[in-house]
Amino acid sequence: MSPKVIGITGGIGSGKSLIAKVFACLGIPIYEADDRAKQLIKNDPVLKNQLLELLGPEAYLPSGEYNRTWVASQIFDKPELLQQVNERVHPRVRKDGEEWAQSHASAPYLLYEAAIMKAAGEGNNFQKVIVVEAPLELRIRRVKQRDNRTEQAIQDIIARQASEEERQRIADYIIWNDEKTSVIEQVLNLDEELRK
Fold first, then answer.
1. Residues 8, 112 contacting (CB under 8 angstroms)
2. What pLDDT, in 10s, does the model give residues 152-176?
3. Burial of 116 from C-beta contacts in 10 A (0-12 / 13-18 / 19+)
4. Handedness of CA 49, 53, 56, 57 (dihedral sign)
């Protein structure tokens, strides 16, 4: 039997990771796609070779660590190169996520957390998608506190991410993380519905 997989996404500073942790407290397994991608880029020999072929030896430090800063500087203004990197990384993460989902098939449902997401059924195995939203000024404040970034750097990241309207178009459910609405209550209600 295939497990029920629910996607969860949100813009930077929306609190999607925090919301995922609340679901985890309810016993729901969470696949953190961005963290897994980092692990696979570092440790998967096939993916590592593909990235070395594409980007050259500077893509990895002598220690074997992925040279994230250097790679970011190479792809920042080159959307075609970024796309080529993604064409190598995303299928590997998707396969890893599918293997992970099968190993957790007995759970009532699974959460797949990722910054970039399409609507359920659009080239993915999600039954539904949860979008976490928060007001822009609150998101900026959270990221400033968390990452010690400038407001301009945060605005640049937000400009490259999906807009609020784009995220809401793919949403089957929206969780408001605005520090006014009870997140716990929203998660408990949604958990009850997703277990059906």
1. yes
2. 989 988 998 999 999 999 999 999 9
3. exposed
4. positive
- Read off the pTM: 0.90
| Buried b / exposed e along 158-190 (16+ C-beta atoms within 10 A) | beebbebeebeebbebbbbbeeeeebeebbeeb
- Cβ atoms of 175 and 129 closer than 8 Å: no
Which residues, other chains included, contact 117 with Cβ-Cβ below 8 Å and sequence gap of 6+? 7, 9, 124, 126, 129, 170
Burial class of residue 119 in the structure, from the number of CB atoms within 10 Å of its CB (0-12 exposed, 13-18 middle, 19+ buried)? middle
Ramachandran angles phi, psi of 132, nearest 5°: -95, 125
DSSP state of 105: T
Residue 75 corresponds to which tokens in the numbers above?
A: 């792809």
Proportion of the chain above pLDDT 90, given as a percent:
85
Helices (H) and strands (E) in the chain, counts: 9, 5
CA distance linking residue 49 with residue 59, whole number of Å: 10
Least confident of 41-50, 74-83, 95-104: 74-83
pLDDT at 1: 62
Whether the pLDDT of residue 11 is over 80: the answer is: yes
